[in-house]
Amino acid sequence: MTSTYDVYVGVGAAAGSLTRYHVGRWISQISNSDFPWGTWFINVVGSCVLGLVFKDFWWHQHDTMWWLLLGTGFCGGFTTFSTMSYETMHLMRTNRWMATAYLASSLGLGCVLIWAILWV
């Protein structure tokens, strides 16, 4: 049974990672800024998607495999805490205010949006 779980998480993570790569690349091409809009957008949207998936699972009975595929797999592969951390440290060298705004808005807005999705 565990190997089946691994497949669902792996397929979801692969789909999320590929989506993150293409969305991030597209946003980087249209954005001409030192601010890492691609990662910011991905993490904020990923927080919303995770909130929506969680809320649906909260109210409806679903097979655990769907959570592994969508919540753990796709959202885990789509969002990227490590890239956000790297980009924050890179910005700290050049523009501390931008680094602070990036980190605070990524985490803050993500949390506020999840709260709004779950409670409003």
TrEMBL record:
Q: Which UniProt keywords apply?
A: Cell membrane, Ion channel, Ion transport, Membrane, Metal-binding, Sodium, Transmembrane, Transmembrane helix, Transport
Instruction: Write out the catalysed reaction.
Output: fluoride(in) = fluoride(out)
User: What Gene Ontology molecular function terms does this protein carry?
Assistant: fluoride channel activity; metal ion binding
Q: Where does this protein reside within or beyond the cell?
A: Cell membrane
As for membrane topology, the entry says:
Multi-pass membrane protein
Its activity is regulated as follows:
Na(+) is not transported, but it plays an essential structural role and its presence is essential for fluoride channel function.
* BP GO annotations: cellular detoxification of fluoride
Report the GO terms under cellular component.
Answer: plasma membrane
Chain residues that bind Na(+): G76, T79
Enumerate the Pfam families for this protein.
CRCB
Could you name the domain of life of the organism this protein comes from? Bacteria
Transmembrane spans: 35-54, 66-86, 98-118
**What family is it from?**
Belongs to the fluoride channel Fluc/FEX (TC 1.A.43) family.
What the protein does comes down to: Fluoride-specific ion channel. Important for reducing fluoride concentration in the cell, thus reducing its toxicity.
From the Swiss-Prot or TrEMBL record, give the protein name. Answer: Fluoride-specific ion channel FluC
Q: Which organism is it from?
A: Alicyclobacillus mengziensis
